[in-house]
Design a protein that fits this description.
This protein has twelve helices and 13 strands. The protein is α/β, with parallel strands linked by helices and 365 residues long.
């Protein structure tokens, strides 16, 4: 049997008529940048997340970039974040001439360890970017308390966590701003790229709207330096259709994860749901001391796996100028050597899940 890691064609077939209709509407409208489709999607995301403003941008990376610009991160500032995440989280900090300062992760959730944040704060620290990794939110109460104590801004990186919650509050609704990614593999994925900045702060919202339009407050009047970070109408239309199905897809991801947990907990270290809230399982990431052997075996049996992330950011050549080295963030380094992800998408067939479990059992016999 050949199992897909992710099959977006199955998802498309389940909502084909709805998608085809809105795509046709955009094509026939002649309005491909901005417009009603984008505005409607922004309103729907704001309502879904429970915030005052949602501003569509061209990617999750641009959502982070615009948010950092909106809270005033500049050259020489420092921004605290996790070394165990996709590079974009820290890349945008460096892009602005600021310095990413890493804090090691919690061994159970893989999210930033709030107990280690305070010792990294100094007079240059401007913000904290907690990453809600794989679909589970970071310990936001502790992070917000620390940020309040030192006057720091908090930007939630919720690229993998739309629909997740922490003590009844949605991802992107707790910090000063929250960032979503609509890359196709995300739980809410576009037919290309896209992102969103969510905030309750009017000033942050206004600034994001300007910087993603070349710093323009009105047509051809530029009040600041910005960039081209607009969300396409066709992506907004597709995403607005998908948003109506998101909770159902999330429920299936949770069901898939519970099925895996029940059958694999004696063989692998399965995900640990630690926070009081909803884990949306953008990835089903497990640990094994025999990862490389196991993933090679699974791949030979037609079961694809993925490793998020094989090299922590502090050991990436692109961040060598920060002066970090092996051993600086031991938990992130340890997890990166053991972690891998199994297929978890909502449309997985029961026989595919059973085949994955049986194949893992065979390996450990």
């Amino acid at each position: 049997m050949q199992v897909p890691f992710l099959d977006l064609k199955r998802q498309y077939q389940s909502i084909k008529e709805e998608i085809d209709q809105v795509v046709r509407e955009v094509v026939e409208s002649g309005r491909y940048i901005g417009g009603e489709k984008v505005e409607n999607f922004e309103k729907d995301i704001a309502h879904y997340v429970g915030v005052k403003h949602a501003i569509g941008v061209s990617s999750g990376t641009d959502a982070l970039l615009a948010s950092l610009m909106a809270v005033g991160v500049n050259q020489g500032d420092e921004v605290i974040t996790s070394p165990f995440t996709f590079i974009a989280t820290a890349e945008v900090v460096s892009f602005l001439g600021a310095k990413p300062v890493f804090v090691d992760i919690d061994e159970e959730t893989f999210n930033i360890n709030p107990d280690l944040i305070e010792k990294k704060i100094n007079s240059k620290t401007k913000a904290i970017i907690p990453v809600h990794l794989f679909g589970q939110m970071a310990e936001m109460d502790s992070i917000m308390e620390i940020a309040g104590k030192y006057g720091l801004k908090v930007i939630e990186d919720a690229a993998q966590s739309i629909g997740a919650s922490y003590k009844g509050r949605a991802a992107c609704s707790i910090g000063d701003a929250g960032c979503l990614s609509f890359f196709p593999s995300k739980n809410l994925g576009a037919f290309g790229d896209g992102g969103m900045v969510c905030t309750n702060d009017d000033t942050i919202a206004d600034t994001v709207r300007q910087v993603k339009e070349h710093g323009s407050a009105s047509r051809y009047h530029h009040t600041r330096i910005g960039f081209n970070g607009r969300l396409d109408a066709i992506q907004a239309a597709v995403l607005d259709v998908k948003l109506r199905h998101l909770d159902g897809w999330t429920k299936k991801r949770i069901e898939n994860s519970e099925y895996y947990n029940n059958n694999l907990k004696e063989l692998l270290r399965v995900p640990i749901k630690k926070v009081d809230g909803i884990h949306v399982y953008n990835q089903y990431s497990v640990l094994s001391d025999r990862r490389d052997e196991l993933t090679k075996y699974l791949n030979s049996k037609g079961i694809p796996t993925a490793i998020y992330y094989p090299i922590p950011l502090h050991l990436q050549p692109s961040f060598s100028n920060l002066g970090n080295g092996e051993g600086d963030y031991p938990v992130a380094e340890k997890i990166s050597k053991k972690v891998f992800s199994l297929p978890i998408f909502p449309e997985l067939y029961p026989e595919e899940k059973e085949y994955i479990i049986e194949t893992i059992r065979e390996f450990f016999k």
